Amino acid sequence: MLRWPELQESFRIATSSLRVNLLRSILTTAGVVVGVVLVVLMGWTINGLDAVWEQTISIIGKDMMYIDKWNWAGGGNWRKMEARKDISLDQALVLQQRMESAEEIIPLIRKWGGSVSLGNTSLRCSVTGTTAAYGNTSAGTTLAGRFFNDIEERSADNVVVIGYNINKNLFPSQSAIGQSIKIAGIPYRIVGVIEKRGFLFMDFVDNEVFIPLHAFRGAYGFVGRSFSVGIKAGSERLLDIVRDEATGHMRSIRNTPPGDESDFSINEMKAFDQQAKNIRVGIWVVGMGLTLLAFIVGSIGIMNIMYVSVTERTKEIGVRKAIGARRSSILLQFLIESALLCLTGAVIAFPIAQLLVGSARFLAVSVFEMDWASVVSPIIPLDLLGIAVGVSIVVGLLAGLLPALKASGLDPVEALRSE
Amino acid sequence: MSQPIIEIANLVKRYEMGDEEVFALQGVTLTIARNEYVALMGPSGSGKSTLMNMLGCLDTPTSGTYLFTGENVSDMDDDDLAEIRNREIGFVFQTFNLLPRATALQNVELPLVYSGMPRAERLQRATQALERVGLSDRMDHKPNELSGGQRQRVAIARALVTSPSIILADEPTGNLDSKTGQDIMRLFGELWRGGNTVILVTHEEDIARHARRIIRLRDGRIESDEVNPHAPVA
């Protein structure tokens, strides 16, 4: 049975012992400090990644899905997908007529290895032909100007909406709106600039330009290309209903016999979750490995110093036992001491971790101008501090267990005799 | 006569030192009643330290029985022994054995901490014990700020604070000059007259002479057990 006065006494002894051996205590905790710093950095990195990812998928559109010949997430049989018939503009338009549950049905056709040029400057980009409806999706939100409209589409104007990176690189100091750029040798008038959408490995989505379908046909033709059909569900809640309806129509449009597998894929932003998850796991594994290593080294140091402490205080243990300390009292005393030792390490580690986190973010945002980093928190979140404190206490208890058992098992007669 | 505090019968303690067996105690039988003042004497190697460890419940015998206030402690486990020591035995050591980083008051409080007493009551009783040994003005001093005699008084206060059945003093004046030693012995005399049971372990005749009964050990056996003719009157 544990008694409150004993617990208080244990804390008193532990704190006074740490104070007396302050320098020794601080040096001993070096391993724990590194461990805690690593835990915090790892947690912060994963949190940051999550924030960046959340930002990316919410900008590109959580309520969007894309019917495509290809499965974007890379799953499935590549050969089988290659053998699928292309999705034609006609199929996309029929789907547009039939769909009832969706807000927008948007045919998209894309050329990946395109380029735009302004004067002598030329930039690689992907060129997407689409309809004015794309401007109604979150992915089509403009930073400046507007998306091209129905009238421009119908009157076969050569208008273009450019991605964030294209704008930044071609027009670093002036407005792009109204300027003329060339795509496949044909001049286009810029009517809008899309806001930043891509972060981290999704950066490529900002290297894109949008032109009306007729212009795309003129520049590259539709032959040998498969359309992709963007469907805006209107809300995440409706995704299931819209997916079911779209699948049904699409199978009938493409004459898929009942029972056969669909010869198209429905892609949602969710599909990229796996990639984000892999990166997460990667950071976690590497971080955990380093952390574990630091804590093992740290706990060996703690264990060693606790053995020293037990030896130094053998006489004291004898006295305590003589006047009535039970095994559990002595055990507790040394466990608390070693846990507090580790906690000291955690307390030392926090400012260091905060400094690292703060500087990393500052460097990324202000020096290297990585815009995406601005969504990452510049301070260590509280739950991470909680985890680090918990972990360091557990490490302290584990590292202190053997020395504490040794102390509690000492024979009082022998212990009293020692000098 | 009330029940004796200590009843020992045929107590044997055997140690193994390498291949050799050493009998520290070879069948000791002894009874000590409440409010006795006993000196345990003997040259080194006589087994008196071993007997003292047994009496103090710091060690258990190889064979024989030890009844402490009627309870058989011969085969108790560590924690039960710790509880008996805490409740019933007040130790006074030759080297004082105070905790160096704790104040006099904290040192005296310690046995009560292990018996789980709440803080307010602890402080009250520790203060009383320190007053009793004449150290009420030194309560917040650490051992290194006290003289040898004062340290031993703190140790005696620590032994008294739980109101134990016996006070077990192992060479309590061994590290003190003779005048201070006499002061300490006077204090033990007062405690005994106040109703305490005192057991002294010593090899000094001068010190043993303060006791009412002197038990001499030799080679692990009781050599003599007699009333001290020189004892000061109660």
Characterization of the model:
The complex is a heterodimer of chains A (about 425) and B (about 230). Chain A has helices at about 5-20, 20-30, 30-60, 80, 90-100, 150-155, 165-170, 215-220, 240-255, 275-310, 315-320, 325-365, 380-410, 410-415, and strands at about 65-70, 105-120, 120-130, 140-145, 160, 180-185, 185-195, 210, 230, 265-270. Chain A has about 425 residues and is of the alpha+beta class. Chain A folds into two domains: about 5-55 and about 275-415, no CATH class; about 105-235, no CATH class. A six-stranded mixed beta barrel of chain A has the order 2-3-8-5-7-6. In chain A, strand 2 and strand 3 (about 120-130) form a beta hairpin. In chain A, helix 5 crosses helix 9. The relative contact order of chain A is 0.18. The mean pLDDT of chain A is about 85. The longest helix of chain B is centred in the C-terminal third of the chain and has 16 residues, at about 180-195. In chain B, the strands form two sheets. Chain B has a six-stranded mixed β-sheet with strand order 6-7-8-3-9-10, sandwiched between helices. In chain B, strands 2-1-4-5 form a four-stranded antiparallel β-sheet, covered by helices on one side. Chain B has one domain: Rossmann fold, CATH 3.40.50.300. Chain B has seven helices and ten strands. Helix content of chain B is about 35%, strand content about 30%. With about 230 residues, chain B is α/β, with parallel strands linked by helices. Chain B has helices at about 50-55, 80-90, 105-115, 120-130, 150-160, 180-195, 205-210; strands spanning about 5-15, 20-30, 35-40, 65-70, 70, 90, 165-170, 195-200, 215-220, 220-225. In chain B, helix 3 (about 105-115) runs parallel beside helix 5. The interface between A and B is medium-sized, with 26 and 30 residues.
Task: Provide the fold topology.
The complex is a heterodimer of chains A (419) and B (234).
Chain A: H1 4-20, H2 22-28, H3 30-60, E1 64-68, H4 78-82, H5 89-98, E2 104-118, E3 121-130, E4 142-145, H6 150-154, E5 159-162, H7 164-170, E6 180-183, E7 186-194, E8 208-212, H8 213-219, E9 228-232, H9 239-253, E10 265-268, H10 273-312, H11 314-322, H12 327-367, H13 382-408, H14 412-417
Parallel strand pairs in A: 3-8, 5-7
Antiparallel strand pairs in A: 1-9, 1-10, 2-3, 2-6, 2-9, 4-7, 5-8, 6-7
Chain B: E1 6-17, E2 20-32, E3 37-41, H1 48-55, E4 63-68, E5 71-72, H2 78-88, E6 89-92, H3 104-114, H4 119-132, H5 148-160, E7 166-170, H6 178-193, E8 197-202, H7 205-208, E9 213-218, E10 221-227
